[in-house]
């Protein structure tokens, strides 16, 4: 019977909508929790940027990443709630709100992708400014300022890297002069003492280089995930409109 088939299809779409938005709701709570943790955790890498002297003003936006995660978390919680409740209660108002919010997010993502492609040179120039500020920070405070030294050590341990660009960032730093012109052990993980000869041959990659390599090596995965999210958003909008019209 056609009507029974349509009802079965409607029930399937409704169940998929509830399950999909339930996952979105849980993801939102998780991201919200991470955002709150970033704002509360004073030893996080984001606060580390605030201790660097001469940091370019544009990078101050990175310090707001906790607020960004909180905003994304709240948005996902709202989307998940509207999608779940809208499908369960068959509420046209909730389904329409869900559709409009997802559509706005989709448009924002497309606009963001265009901006990244168009303003790539601006981003490169910003990273260059950050690098200059980071190297100055190392040469001025690494080995004399406990906070700066600890944060750099934590970063280098976590990423298995050395300095911002490479071991030469430490040349002339308080640590370098206090330790007979040698570099931190993290720059020569298998050799000690870490002098310029050993560092030339054995030095770990700079932290910026390591992050850049990580992104470059996973470009396909990142693009794939982005396209997958876009496809899911389009499917969610189609299903919500089908349920709305039903």
TrEMBL record:
InterPro entries: Tetraspanin/Peripherin, Tetraspanin_animals, Tetraspanin_CS, Tetraspanin_EC2_sf. Interacts with SLC19A2. Interacts with NTRK1/TRKA. One of its GO terms (cellular component) is lysosomal membrane. It comes from Gambusia affinis. Keywords: Glycoprotein, Lysosome, Membrane, Transmembrane, Transmembrane helix. Belongs to the tetraspanin (TM4SF) family. It is a multi-pass membrane protein. It holds the Pfam family Tetraspanin. SUPFAM superfamilies: Tetraspanin. Structural component of specialized membrane microdomains known as tetraspanin-enriched microdomains (TERMs), which act as platforms for receptor clustering and signaling. Participates thereby in diverse biological functions such as cell signal transduction, adhesion, migration and protein trafficking. Regulates neuronal differentiation in response to NGF by facilitating NGF-mediated activation of NTRK1/TRKA receptor tyrosine kinase and subsequent downstream signaling pathways. Plays a role in the inhibition of TNFalpha-induced apoptosis. This is Tetraspanin. Its main location: membrane. It comes from the Eukaryota. The lineage of its organism: Eukaryota, Metazoa, Chordata, Craniata, Vertebrata. It is found in: Lysosome membrane; Membrane. The chain crosses the membrane at residues 12-38, 65-88, 95-119, 220-244.
